[in-house]
Design goal:
The chain is an alpha/beta fold. Helix content is 33%, strand content 26%. A ten-stranded mixed beta sheet has the order 2-1-3-4-9-8-7-5-6-10, with helices on both faces. A five-stranded parallel beta sheet has the order 13-12-11-14-15, sandwiched between helices. Strands 16, 17, 18 and 19 form a four-stranded mixed beta sheet that branches. Helix 9 packs antiparallel against helix 10. Pathway: Purine metabolism; GMP biosynthesis; GMP from XMP (L-Gln route): step 1/1.
Length: 501
């Protein structure tokens, strides 16, 4: 992506809301980027940010540290720093203050009171507001020059500042919906305190990226794009096609780990709803033979990545035979993931002969969907829920050896019933992702008058991909779906609901 210099750099020390924070800032038309809190000072200085946000999720006993020279760097370059939640405590510790275990932990909505005038709370914010606290430690001694701007009901520090040194801190999460006035505070900080101009938009991103693709690929090189029918790969393919036209060669790979009738459905979509030329490569037997007997997830990931690489290299050879020009590039349509997720775990090996083009690597999933609308990608693609690169072998879907017995068939049938039931209930667009999970265990049950010893499966639905909050189904819906599964899938006698916290 061409726009690689963020105005706001987020250092993630383990917060579950980092993805959401990145998104909220971009919604203010400010380009923000998140990197690991353990990144080196050189990595930070190379990005040349105007603002740095410390977003943490640690506790005092395992508190991280900022890289050597960080404080000197931000002060000598006039960079504003905001610590959020445990990021505030990290800032306090680094500057000579003290943090200790609080008498009471605060993992809930709390009321805070603004104690003094501050640019953070201008623009009509009341002196009292509800915010989402998520911490067990608290700042007991502030560094020299800092003042308390707001406190919680129980008296713990809620906001601090040292305007002269450009250091600010919020003990709560302003980015979540449980902090109704939090975005006003965040906007005040970025626009009024830091003086950032909100000039980032997706139309400019698209134009810049198309120029970058043309420059990198040149006038005669050919490109392969792996498409799955999902949002990311379809939008990436559309973007590259707009840049280089027929020199793009799209390939859909059936690795034997796809959902129910996925190959037929995706190829039909590309043929009827979106006339982008796509070649289907059926490599199911190859992938599954290599995965046979493998239970360890990391080993499965490596095998899948290696076989994908082999398929792409072979596909480029076939194109060379056909047109006399071997493709030099591979488009990887993976969007930005501040939160570590297994959905991007089918990575491409570094020794692959094709050079990578990653036009979406700094865009969030919601932004990719918006970009797809600008590119006139049909809505049927943009509404599809995410599906991992390692397919049903992903550790969140298929545990253990997925080739054992009829594990994949069971998983496909259960997953299909679950998703179709969601669509029939009109819930599909309200859920970020829903899927079935194959559990490599058998349970004893009674179906009809017969005692059974069959498989257990689980169902999971996520309402928000940024916070990973679960979707709360009505009990009636769950009972009906579980009944359909046990009555339709002969090898299943127990259905569980997976609730991830």
């Amino acid at each position: 992506m061409e726009t690689t210099t963020p105005k706001v750099l987020i250092l993630d020390f383990g917060s579950q809301y980092t993805h959401l924070l990145t998104f909220r800032i971009r919604k203010l038309f400010i380009f923000s980027q998140c990197i690991s809190g353990t990144s080196s000072l050189k990595t930070i200085t190379d990005l040349n940010p105007k603002v740095i946000i410390l977003s943490g999720g640690f506790h005092s006993e395992d508190a991280p540290t900022l890289p050597n020279g960080f404080i000197e760097y931000v002060e000598s370059n006039g960079i504003f720093v905001l610590g959020i939640s445990h990021g505030l405590q990290l800032l306090v510790q680094e500057l000579g203050g003290a943090v200790d275990r609080g008498e009471k932990q605060e993992y809930e909505t709390k009321e805070i009171e603004v104690l003094k005038e501050s640019a953070l709370y201008s623009g009509g914010i009341g002196s009292k507001q509800s915010v989402w606290m998520s911490h067990g430690d608290e700042s007991v001694t502030l560094p020299e020059g800092f003042s308390v701007v707001a406190k919680s009901q129980q008296g713990s520090v809620a906001a601090i500042e040292n305007p002269e040194r450009r250091f600010y801190g919020l003990q709560y999460h302003p980015e979540v919906t449980d902090s109704p006035e939090g975005m006003v505070t965040l906007s005040n900080f970025l626009l009024n305190v830091c003086g950032i101009t909100p000039d980032w938009n997706l139309e400019d991103v698209l134009e810049e990226e198309i120029r970058a693709i043309k420059r990198v690929v040149g006038d005669d090189a050919h490109v392969i794009c792996a498409v799955s029918g999902g949002v990311d790969s379809t939008v990436a393919a559309s973007m590259v096609y707009k840049a280089i036209g027929d020199r793009l060669h799209c390939v859909f790979v059936d690795n034997g780990l796809l959902r129910y009738k996925e190959q037929e459905r995706v190829m039909e979509l590309f043929g009827t709803d979106f006339r982008l030329p796509v070649t289907c490569v059926d490599a199911a037997d190859i992938f599954l033979s290599k995965l046979q007997g493998v239970e360890d997830h990391e080993t499965k990931r490596e095998i899948i990545a290696k076989e994908f690489s082999s398929v792409f290299d072979n596909f480029s050879i076939e194109i060379d035979k056909k047109i006399g020009k071997k493709p030099a590039f591979l488009v990887k349509g993976t969007s930005y993931r501040p939160i570590k997720s297994s959905h991007g775990d089918g990575g491409i090996p570094m020794d692959m002969t094709l050079k990578l083009i990653e036009p979406l690597k700094l865009l969030l999933k919601t932004e990719v969907r918006e970009l797809g609308k600008i590119l006139n990608v049909p809505e049927v693609f943009l509404k599809r829920q995410p599906f991992p690169e390692s397919g049903l072998a992903c550790p969140e879907r298929g545990l253990g050896d997925v080739t054992e017995g009829n594990a994949l068939d069971i998983l496909r049938q259960v997953d299909e019933i679950f998703l179709q039931s969601i669509k029939e209930a009109g819930l599909y667009d309200s859920i970020w992702q829903a899927f079935a999970i194959y559990l490599p265990v058998k349970t004893v049950g009674v179906q009809g008058d017969k005692r059974t010893h069959s498989h257990a499966v689980a169902l999971r639905a996520v309402q928000d991909g940024m916070t990973e909050d679960r979707y709360k189904f009505e009990r009636k819906f769950l009972v009906e779906v579980m009944g359909k599964i046990c009555n339709s899938v002969s090898d299943v006698n127990r259905v569980l609901q997976d609730i991830k916290w």
